[in-house]
Amino acid sequence: MRQTRQMDASDIVRLDGQGFEALCRDLFEDILGLPLEIFAAGKDHGIDLRHVADDGTMSVVQCKHWVRSGRPALLKHMRTVERPKLDVMRPTRYLLASTVELTVDAKNSLCRDLAPHVRSPSDLYGIEQIEAELKKRPTIVVRHHRLWLSGTAVLQGVLHKNTVVRSSDLLDGFVECARTFVPTPAYDLAKSVLETVSVCLLSGIPGIGKTTMAKMLAKSYVDEGYQLVEVSEDVKELDNAWLDDTKQVFYYDDFLGQTALEHMFNKNEDSRLIKVIGRIRNTSGKKLILTTREYILAQAKQRYPKLDDEQLDPLTCVIELQNLTRETRAKILYRHVESLDLCDDDRRKIAEPRTWTQLIHHPNFNPRQITSTLRLAARSGRVAEELLRNLDNPERIWAHIVEEDLDDAAVHLLEVLATFRFGALSEHLYEVWLDYRSRLSVDLDPRLFYRALRTLQGTLITIGFGNDLFHNDRIIDFHNPSVGDYLQARMNGNLVRLPELLASVNTAGQAMHMVSLASQFDENGEAGHLYRHSAAIAQAVIRTFEEVETGESEEDDSWAANLTRALSVAENLQSPDLANFVVGRIEQNPTEMRESYFAHLADLVEQIHESTLIPKEISRRLIVKLLGTISGDPVAQSDTEEWTTLVEAHAALQFLPGAEASKRLAALRAAMFERAEKELNTYWSTDDGGCGDDDWSWMQTKSMLDFLETVSLTGEAKIAYERAKTASKEYDDSDYVPAPLQPLIRTELPIFEPVRDYPVDKVEQIRKRLVDTVGSDDQ
Prior knowledge:
- This protein is of the alpha/beta class.
- The model is unreliable at 1-10, 148-165, 258-267, 466-471, 733-758 and 774-779 (pLDDT under 50).
- One of its GO terms (molecular function) is DNA binding.
């Protein structure tokens, strides 16, 4: 497990004077909610940061970056030098920020010496308090790169900036969410599950309140000092943000996607998720909150037995409409009405018994519909009437706006945005919007795009990472999931120019999202209009195939994994063109095929074997080629390849269907048995044989023993086997510390820790002993 630490005081002390002032400006602007002036180097007259209000009142922050002088010197300086300046300046509010640690006595002393200019000890910030405030504001830390130099936690935030900033944006939305949240028994149950097993999965229909409840659960842990981490794409984000010594709550909304087949596209995501759940359940100070739509969870369990076998049911809290009692619905309605600035007339109409009774007993009552309708109708009046109409026809709320109130540039922006699963960078959104409109032969003036952003912001879309409409790294996403649902319904209702829209898709993520949308079926099992454009969607998959990122781990994507996915899509869309593309890529015998993981090649073999689109003759030819890549020449490989490579090939072939796979597996097993028996006879034929102190050889021996466990050995081979097995057990009991290293460990010297406090001769002695053990300085 990775060893990480939080940013500490030494990271802040590393700043120079101007850097510390700049950091304090950003920090105290956020704390005070006021813009602060910062000044050039020179005499400051006791003013480092300042805010002057319209009425002349003045707030001052003084920054004392005292690294070496210490606390007594700071107290004396403030009393003798800074106090006279304060008497002249007479600020309305004075705050002190210092890189010196301030004890209770020190703060009390400063309050007496600087009275009446200091309101309370809470306006005196020592290094420890500044550090604590910065931990709550990772986005400020990201802007000050000198803090990254030694703080692993901070560097991690920089490397995964999108996750950090997204989590910060989520925190900002908690206050608004809390204004309308109504606790229910489901919330109490979910909280109990989290307290008991640290993982909770919230499930229910769209709009029932899963996301709101998840946010409030996360907020309850943030209030207890947990760091919030929002996960949006896959569980690797969670692993990247993991900090061993930090309490963290991970928030993963719609973790299976928003459509029934979206979850099929992340390689090994089910295995990774199960591992993460187990890891969090076994680690104190970690919580995981997931949400998904109930029918998607049911289909995912059918597709991925691991999600079912691992017994997710005890972690799952289902939020059902019938659980929203009359009293709960009334509270939801009341909290939403109270949170908005409605006119008295609208409030009176909603308060009429006939109106509110109709609303809370409506069969389509849905917290999301209440939220969206009130926010939009509050601008136009007639709130009570709009609420009832929109509950009668849930799509009406967005249909009226899109069809009646928006110009074509804004509508096209929404249609393009609907092709992205997780929102889009503004620069990328503009690029696709421009291509789409070019194919539609309409005005390409870029000002129309930014005008559309202004029109849609706050109502139909959100602009993340700030509100600068013209900054290229802003994430644009739908303000409410129901907006995306409506846009997808427009696509399936033939209200969108799909040929032009699909032709403008230029990333693998968009292409796969369109596949998942096309795969939706209504309650009668009928496909939507989007499915009729399967050929265009397949071309988008082909067009963007090379853009899928591959990784260095078996859990990441690879050439073979991408082809497996493409062939699965071909079967789903019944696309011969996409199946032929897969065939062509394999027959080209590219280098990427030979570099793919055996497990991924095995998945591809299995997908080809099950394909209804590839003729059997071609299928057999492809399978032979792929199996040859996995197993090669077993006899030659058994002498030349690493044992681990042979084990991986064996695992890949073990469960594949077909006679060819069985034949190659049998040949590989025979060669591996011969290799393992030979190795044991070579190294374990005598009592003084063995692997010495080579960890890798021990691991290989253990693997060979496991492999031979099912075989009946006789004679010398059996004696060698038993000798190696006994030695391996003794090696396990020694905690895998090679014998030459054990004396060093027993000295209890911190040889793997900084040794700057040890005498030079002692350090050199340790270094020499290590070099003698492992062979060289480099190792």
